[in-house]
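Good morning,

Attaching, inline, the backbone tokens for the sequence recovery test we're adding to the shared suite. The designed sequence is right after.
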């Protein structure tokens, strides 16, 4: 992999990341920030984030294929990668059907999109693919630097590594809540996780991981929330992150759900970096 993400990164909605945030994350030792929630295709603010840091990688998690044409994204990629070599990773994906009226035959659309990126000169090593199921995971391994699974568990990471094989990036996202009051932490986790329980692709993947109808109904069982939004003190959460590494992840990007994320960022950097 030409782009070095380090072992630990941050996943955060793109609206919550500015140059000051990026500089502080780099100072703590995080290797990458993943800009979440389908950022707009011009990515004009990425230049500012990279300019404010020395080695931090900025990745998109994700550019939505229904939102921006590959030729347009390729020009954006060329602009950023030309100024900041090996510090920008273009994460792309198909999102989910409930959010995109254009959503149809997503696998074929992903193949076409990657063909478009090829034609426009975006290198395989400079892009990653959001992937959950084995077909798209294999596509990620064949046509990109690797896979960026979202809303998963170490069990998924283990099976994803088997599909990808060695030498391909596996960078799962993991939600965390720093706090030892289990009821309070679960309530924070549910605020975010419940949204995904209405999205068919995530629900299907969670079923494959062994979660039942009872786990998935309403706002999710305690068992589900505990798996998808790790909570506890920093040492406890760190064990959960390490479980992804032990299952084959190269890089884990944490999404802190606490209102003020910085205590968690600092505590987890001290535990894991």
């Amino acid at each position: 992999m030409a782009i070095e993400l380090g072992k630990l990164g941050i996943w955060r909605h793109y609206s919550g990341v500015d140059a000051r945030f990026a500089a502080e994350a780099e100072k703590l030792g995080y290797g990458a920030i993943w800009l979440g929630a389908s950022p707009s295709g011009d990515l004009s603010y990425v230049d500012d984030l990279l300019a404010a840091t020395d080695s931090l990688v900025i990745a998109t998690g994700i550019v939505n294929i229904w939102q921006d044409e590959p030729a347009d994204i390729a020009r954006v990629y060329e602009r950023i990668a030309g100024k900041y070599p090996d510090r920008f990773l273009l994460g792309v994906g198909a999102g989910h059907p409930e959010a995109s009226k254009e959503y149809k035959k997503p696998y074929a659309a992903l193949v076409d999109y990657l063909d478009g990126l090829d034609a426009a000169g975006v290198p395989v090593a400079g892009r990653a693919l959001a992937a959950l199921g084995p077909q798209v995971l294999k596509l990620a391994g064949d046509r990109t630097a690797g896979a960026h699974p979202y809303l998963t568990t170490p069990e998924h990471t283990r099976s994803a590594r088997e599909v990808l094989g060695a030498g391909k990036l596996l960078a799962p996202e993991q939600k965390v809540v720093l706090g030892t009051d289990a009821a309070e932490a679960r309530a924070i986790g549910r605020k975010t996780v419940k949204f995904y329980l209405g999205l068919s692709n995530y629900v299907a993947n969670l079923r494959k991981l062994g979660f039942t109808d009872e786990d998935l109904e309403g706002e999710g069982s305690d068992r589900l929330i505990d798996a998808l939004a790790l909570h506890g003190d920093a040492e406890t959460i760190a064990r959960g992150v390490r479980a992804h590494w032990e299952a084959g992840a190269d890089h884990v990007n944490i999404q802190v759900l606490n209102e003020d994320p910085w205590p968690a960022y600092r505590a987890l950097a001290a535990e894991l970096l």
